[in-house]
Amino acid sequence: xxxxxxxxxxxxxxxxxxxxxxxxxxxxxxxxxxxxxxxxxxxxxxxxxxxxxxxxxxxxxxxxxxxxxxxxxxxxxxxxxxxxxxxxxxxxxxxxxxxxxxxxxxxxxxxxxxxxxxxxxxxxxxxxxxxxxxxxxxxxxxxxxxxxxxxxxxxxxxxxxxxxxxxxxxxxxxxxxxxxxxxxxxxxxxxxxxxxxxxxxxxxxxxxxxxxxxxxxxxxxxxxxxxxxxxxxxxxxxxxxxxxxxxxxxxxxxxxxxxxxxxxxxxxxxxxxxxxxxxxxxxxxxxxxxxxxxxxxxxxxxxxxxxxxxxxxxxxxxxxxxxxxxxxxxxxxxxxxxxxxxxxxxxxxxxxxxxxxxxxxxxxxxxxxxxxxxxxxxxxxxxxxxxxxxxxxxxxxxxxxxxxxxxxxxxxxxxxxxxxxxxxxxxxxxxxxxxxxxxxxxxxxxxxxxxxxxxxxxxxxxxxxxxxxxxxxxxxxxxxxxxxxxxxxxxxxxxxxxxxxxxxxxxxxxxx
Amino acid sequence: xxxxxxxxxxxxxxxxxxxxxxxxxxxxxxxxxxxxxxxxxxxxxxxxxxxxxxxxxxxxxxxxxxxxxxxxxxxxxxxxxxxxxxxxxxxxxxxxxxxxxxxxxxxxxxxxxxxxxxxxxxxxxxxxxxxxxxxxxxxxxxxxxxxxxxxxxxxxxxxxxxxxxxxxxxxxxxxxxxxxxxxxxxxxxxxxxxxxxxxxxxxxxxxxxxxxxxxxxxxxxxxxxxxxxxxxxxxxxxxxxxxxxxxxxxxxxxxxxxxxxxxxxxxxxxxxxxxxxxxxxxxxxxxxxxxxxxxxxxxxxxxxxxxxxxxxxxxxxxxxxxxxxxxxxxxxxxxxxxxxxxxxxxxxxxxxxxxxxxxxxxxxxxxxx
Lengths: 512, 369
What we know:
heterodimer; A: 512 residues; alpha+beta; 4 domains; 5-stranded mixed beta sheet; 52% helix; globular; B: 369 residues; alpha/beta; Rossmann fold; 3 domains; 6-stranded mixed beta sheet; 13 strands
């Protein structure tokens, strides 16, 4: 590592630029971690990018696959990586050797805004590893953590064989997205208590309605009623027996706590889970994070950094970053426009009850209360929102029309992708749906002792889209590998409730 | 600096080659690098292994995007697996730019990926032709070669830098130093004559999907052979019970019904070759695509006869590609294999679906003939 750092240190002229840019960054109010820039050759860049930005990860073939893809597309001139920044304290960012000075400046400005976002957005709090007792600084030593993960996996690979460990990690990676985005914000789980439930009487009394006169008994509490009460009671008792008592979204955490794993398996699973949670906030805030970074690079570049001879090159580069294509949402574009929209609205006082109630188009168009709260507002938004709440709260009808947003879908009859709608509600719903749970289906562990045979039962909360079946089957198999007993997932296929099951030998799929 | 990527990379290559981890091989998809050629997007296949996860099915989920168009309009360029969001990458702030490719570069990439050998020329490859190509820009040149856009850009840049640019009155006046001209390079190219004869069965049993497969495959064959030969010619023949020569457009669009007599197409091909392309001077590549359903055994025998006597002696190779269709019996490929089992000049390939196209191109062109 030492050698690596020496060779890639920033040359002097870039170091001066960095100092200058960092001053601008602080003067506009961005609050950043110390940031270290390194300059990499394209090959080093591809390697590090393949590792997700970290110079050391655990050994796995998929980094090799990613590397091949990146280096091929670089060699063939299809694409190149401009910048890479990792959420760490100090933040680490990589610049590509041989880029023009304007590009390097642009990347630096962009990176600083990302770092501000990492430091201040609430979603990224879960990547904090505590506080430094000396100065209260946020500890995020993910470079070290990832290297430690590498050491753990290597240790086990040496002891019991790379093949075995890799196969297990493949199974874990199939489950990688089964984590609970809300977990960091839930109250800490209480340690399991043996209080009330155990003290319940074995057969509780069936709660019946009060009867004052004996002959009324069969009328007030008829037999069916007594039966139904008994049944309800039995169900409640069963529910209390069930484990977990509430469905658990953090499937990986549940397996870690409860699956009969060997020590090496437990440690590998813990590695995969920790990394999945580390990357989660980036998926939850893609639009905001890129929007924020683009907003600031464009302000800083045009107002502070560029001189007149550089502005055309800058504009050219910026335009290609913000370009849109049919059928693909550009998070940079949507994010930057939405931040600008919010700033504009709060500058002009276009919010609050009076604004919402106003139906006069002419009045709304010229509405300007000169409140000047825009800057303050967008800083607040970057701290307190994630993509879902950002869109939910600030996407407006005017914005959808101005930005020509549309929703699209697959038309079975015409066998093609088509624009479906341009109405505000449709676009917003579609956008929120695709952002919910970072685009993953919602899966929870329902019962760890399914059918009283210690089989694992999971449920898919169906929200309109079916699971991809061939993959789902492989995932059930991977679950079975970890759980070591048969596993079943309840989902909906073609509007029919269906159970997908793997018992260690065979798959089965049946309606329920 | 020694990163560990080499180990991971060779491990991945070994999985792809099937040396280790056989269980993963079934997940290998054709994974694509997208390039753009003119306004068409073409994809270059590279192996890719997906780790299965719980995801939503293809085409179940739509998405949101921005731009022009009315509800009901088709989207040009299909979104990736209905994932309108684009893949939520697990690395932040990674920018990528798409670049356009020329057909030549495409062919290079194809050749490299499929490990295609260069073709041994049987014509007069010793003759070299000189050709000028515009490859760059320079500061001096004749006015007729003025590069307007680059001139404008350098003038604009200069005026902004000098502060003489007024956005309210955006007049750009290039000076002598701003002028840019196209410049050329003279390249030497071997002269070779080649012709591709595409023949396709358009009888009732060939559906749209089958034709699409033929279209994609012939695009790549065209690209590769064009890279190998300058001034390549293409001819198109369609046939059901009778054969006729058509233009490119008709070739891919026509749908006839009725029976299939493959010999009609072969006879027509032989006539064209004899009339227009003397075998001594031309490299001749007949490609025939069909679903393998022929009218009668007699006709198949007639085909074999024409192949042996007329087509094979004059052609470099004869390629027969059989697409899978629900109606065809697929008998023809078996007959060909039976009659020409020894003959390296006749290459057969079965193309069952789009994923098989790459493999089939490798079979056709992998011998370097």
